[in-house]
Design goal:
Radius of gyration of chain B: 19 Å
Number of helices of chain B: 11
Shape of chain B: globular
Helix content of chain A: 25-40%
Mean pLDDT of chain B: 93
CATH architecture of the largest domain in chain A: 3-Layer(aba) Sandwich
Distance between the termini of chain A: 32 Å
Strand order of the largest sheet of chain A: 6-7-8-3-9-10
Number of helices of chain A: 10
Structural class of chain B: mainly alpha
Number of domains of chain B: 1
CATH superfamily of the largest domain in chain A: P-loop containing nucleotide triphosphate hydrolases
Strand content of chain A: 25-35%
Shape of chain A: globular
Largest sheet of chain B: 2 strands, antiparallel
Number of strands of chain B: 2
Structural class of chain A: alpha/beta
Mean pLDDT of chain A: 89
Low-confidence stretches of chain A: none
Oligomer: heterodimer
Strand content of chain B: under 5%
Strand order of the largest sheet of chain B: 1-2
Largest interface: A-B, 32 and 26 residues
Helix content of chain B: over 70%
Order of helices and strands of chain A: EEEHEEHEHHHEHEHEEHEEEHEH
Number of strands of chain A: 14
Radius of gyration of chain A: 23 Å
CATH class of the largest domain in chain A: Alpha Beta
CATH topology of the largest domain in chain A: Rossmann fold
Order of helices and strands of chain B: HHHEEHHHHHHHH
Number of domains of chain A: 2
Chain lengths: 303, 254
């Protein structure tokens, strides 16, 4: 069963800007799917159309087999949306926000109270249930939006940059929460600018740029296409000249730091052998860029 | 999907909203109308005498009540729905499987309830100043209900089309208030020169004020049947227009 199916989806805004130029996309049930793209690429427009906040110019959207035009209510019932920006009433309490959302989905009061308690506990917000939402921290507000999106137990959860602007500790805890939700059977579509996040969490990926899907595959095969790794090496002794190793691009960033681009076929063992032969001792090594980030930049730049 | 739960959620949310801020929503009309009754009804009214057989105080009470119903039913919907748009929590409703007619009826019900509640508060205050037996309770209540409905709808359309907070204050300040004051709240149109009488007939608030006045004290410058036909016509038209705007997503969707 396809959790989401987009067919030739187009959107032209009233000012003439063509945000989506006929995208086709399918997301399998149970998937953890990354939808990536630079700012203005069309991600938010696509998510807006899927969640009925933006009207498509043409094309089709099907959610768990329910067409968004002809079977609107069933299609909408399957979706939970965590938007990019805080969009709840800042004067309502945490519990009120989640409880009202359950009401909009037609959930009877008793069940709504149970689900609200469950979701707020899952988001570690139950102790804050009576707090007026404007008094919450940024991370808590994001968790309120996740609890709100999950109160009706959606089959498809759309997370539009859910960890933007939150500190690393909260981000990591949100990753765990998202993985847990996905393991419980909820399909997740994630947009993020933190490509490390997408690489860690998602199994499949689509990259959108200038209103078109420029890449759509599973994460493993996408990453396997990357044939050059970039590393930063911290050296024990300062260097005066840039060392030369066949097949590698090397840059002396400072006297004790080297940036190396190394093709996969050379490998780290060979690199270290050659460095040792040149009497260069390496103290530590780290990735210059995240692997997905490198691919992302290549794909977007190739446009 | 159980629509009644979604409807009740919107209505209770609206009631909770205006009760929570009662010093802004219920107290000001109580104070303003007390001043109207004191200054216009008591101090000035005692020197005016009677209009169509009613004391001036009794004559202005229905107009002041209906004027409060108009302004508060309008204000409730326009401010609540525009704030919902402004804070973007309208998205909570748009994402959910709530049909447009439930969104509309939920907000309109909130406006009607506040309009009628303010009307009751003003009517209770008027009991301290006026002394009359209600002429026709059915006409009075149905006029108040239809008036609250009509202006709640107008407020909803204003909120949908508004793009800034300025846009939601223009109609109340520059249209509703002048039309209310020129709608025969404090005078009978029969007292005006013929040309102004004719012009006044184009003011819909004049009809509502007179129908309500007829219900309370049995005095009217206007045909009551015509008033009900006109109000029903406006309500149907504004309802259809609101649903069209919601269907098109005007003001709420890109």
């Amino acid at each position: 069963m396809k959790a989401l199916s987009l067919g030739n989806l187009r959107k032209t805004y009233s000012n003439g800007f063509e945000a989506l130029k006929g995208i086709n996309l399918q997301v399998e049930e149970g998937d953890f799917f990354a939808l990536l793209g630079p700012n203005g690429a069309g991600k938010s427009t696509a998510i807006g159309i899927i969640s009925s906040l933006v009207t498509a110019s043409s094309g089709s959207v099907s959610i768990f087999g329910h067409d968004l035009k002809t079977d609107r209510e069933r299609a909408k019932s399957c979706i939970g949306l965590v938007p990019q920006e805080v969009n709840f009433n800042q004067f309502d309490t945490v519990k009120g926000i989640v409880l009202n959302q359950a009401g909009y989905y037609g959930m009877p009061r008793k069940l709504a109270l149970q689900r609200t308690e469950h979701c707020l506990k899952q988001m570690d917000l139950w102790d804050r249930r009576d707090t007026v939402s404007r008094r919450l921290s940024g991370g808590m507000k994001r968790r309120v939006m996740i609890a709100r999106a999950m109160v009706h137990a959606p089959k498809l959860l759309i997370l539009d940059e859910p960890t933007a602007g939150v500190d690393i500790e909260i981000r990591r805890s949100m990753w765990l929460m998202m993985q847990e939700v996905n393991q419980q059977g909820t399909t997740i579509i994630l947009t993020t600018h933190y490509l490390e996040e997408a690489e860690s969490l998602c199994r499949n990926i689509a990259i959108i740029d200038e209103g078109r899907i420029v890449e759509n595959s599973d994460m493993a095969s996408l990453l396997s296409r990357l044939h050059i790794d970039h590393f930063i090496l911290d050296l024990a002794e300062p260097l005066k000249t840039t060392p030369i190793i066949d097949g590698c691009q090397i840059e002396l960033i400072s006297d004790k730091v080297l940036a190396i681009a190394i093709p996969k076929e050379i490998g780290l063992n060979q690199l270290f052998s050659q460095l040792t032969a040149q009497n260069i001792q390496v103290m530590s090594l780290k990735n210059k860029t995240n692997r997905l980030e490198q691919l992302f930049m290549d794909l977007v730049a190739s446009k | 999907m159980n629509y009644s739960i979604a409807f009740k959620t919107i209505v209770f949310k609206e009631i909770y909203r205006f009760l929570r801020i009662w010093p802004q929503t219920l107290l000001p009309p109580a104070i303003t109308t007390t001043l109207y009754f004191l200054i216009f009804g008591k101090l000035i009214g005692d020197r005016i005498g009677t209009i169509s057989g009613a004391s001036y105080m009794d004559y202005i009470v229905p107009g002041i009540i209906i004027m409060s119903v108009i302004s508060h039913s309008y204000a409730n919907v326009v401010s609540s729905f525009y704030s919902t748009k402004f804070q973007r929590n309208i998205e909570e409703l748009l994402v959910a499987p709530v049909p447009n007619w439930i969104i509309l009826s939920g907000y309109i019900s909130g406006g009607i309830i506040r309009g009628l509640l303010v009307g009751i508060v003003v009517a209770l205050i008027s009991l301290l100043f006026a002394d009359f037996a209600v002429h026709n309770i059915a006409i009075a209540l149905s006029t108040a209900l239809l008036t609250a409905t009509l202006f709640s709808l107008a407020g909803f359309i204003n909120a949908l089309l508004a793009e800034s907070f300025d846009d939601i204050s223009i109609i109340p300040n520059f249209v509703l208030t002048p039309l209310s004051y020129l709608g025969g709240v404090f005078y009978s149109v029969a007292m005006l020169p013929t040309v102004w009488q004719t012009i006044s007939m184009g003011n819909p608030i004049l009809y509502m004020v007179n129908a309500f006045r007829y219900g309370l004290i049995g005095v009217s410058d206007i045909d009551i049947q015509l008033t009900f036909i006109m109000m029903s016509g406006f309500i149907v038209t504004l309802t259809l227009f609101s649903l069209y705007l919601l269907y098109k997503g005007i003001g709420i969707k890109n």
